[in-house]
Amino acid sequence: MGTSAAERRDELIALYREVQHCQKCPLHATRTNVVFGSGNADADLMFVGEAPGHHEDQQGKPFVGQAGKLLDKLLAGIGLGREQVYVANVLMCRPPGNRDPQADEIEACEGFLFRKVALIQPKVVATLGNFATKLLSGKPTGITRVHGAEQEATLGGRSVLLYPLYHPAAALYTPAMLKVLEADFARLPELLGRTAEEPEPAPMRAPLAPEPAVQLGLF
Ligand code: URA
């Protein structure tokens, strides 16, 4: 795998082309478009939702309906836009009638999601709702219990901070859930900062009497 941002972006584009005619699960028969994902191919922050809905299926882009508008608003609240983050889903094709993703569909699609994470190399992966959270954490614990609690995870062969959030579509019609989602979202800048290059440790206060350098932690 290429390592520079430009090489990783090229590989992401190659993956995009590869999946355009995917027939790995039955959803290919009813989809209009494969919804690959969109945003900054070198983003520090990646969101993973559930599956395309009607509008996403029509336009071939993730989160372009009502839930997407809320996602944009939440992002604006922390000073970010779509062009700075990457947004993808567990499934790239719309389940008919927006039903829940099925196990065989998730299994068919998950390899592509992991490849996206490996190519984008985000520092923080925010999972939106139960399906993305359970898939990427590898644990069955539901979103109600784990939202807002960051956890270390290894994804795409790299260590990332996994940050489960309520799904914006669920928060649209439940004011109490929206409040929680806003509060959880507000911690994202801190989490992104936390994963930034570790700062040099603060210099130790000069000792009153000279001490061996090893005691000062210099070696
Ligand atoms: N809900 C999702 O989970 N993903 C989308 O892309 C749109 C709505």
Walk me through this protein's architecture.
The chain is α/β, with parallel strands linked by helices and 219 residues long. It has one domain: 3-Layer(aba) Sandwich (Uracil-DNA Glycosylase, subunit E), CATH 3.40.470. Helices cover 39% and strands 13% of the residues. It has nine helices and six strands. A six-stranded mixed β-sheet has the order 1-3-2-4-6-5. A hairpin with a 2-residue loop joins strand 5 and strand 6. Helix 1 packs antiparallel against helix 4. The relative contact order is 0.14. It binds uracil. Uracil binds next to loops.
Using the alpha-carbon principal axes, give the shape.
globular
Assign the CATH topology. Answer: Uracil-DNA Glycosylase, subunit E
Give the bound compounds: uracil
- Rounded to the nearest angstrom, the distance between the terminal CA atoms is 36 Å
Largest sheet: 6 strands, mixed
Which class in CATH terms?
Alpha Beta
Question: What is the CATH superfamily?
Answer: Uracil-DNA glycosylase-like domain
| Count of discrete structural domains | 1
CATH A-level architecture: 3-Layer(aba) Sandwich
Mean pLDDT: 90
Q: How many β strands by DSSP?
A: 6
Number of DSSP helices?
9
* Radius of gyration over C-alpha positions, nearest whole angstrom: 20 Å
Query: What share of residues is helical?
Result: 25-40%
Percent of residues in β-strands? 5-15%
Low-confidence stretches: 202-219
* Lateral arrangement of strands in the main beta sheet: 1-3-2-4-6-5
Order of SSEs, N→C?
HEEHHEHEHHEEHHH
Structural class: alpha/beta
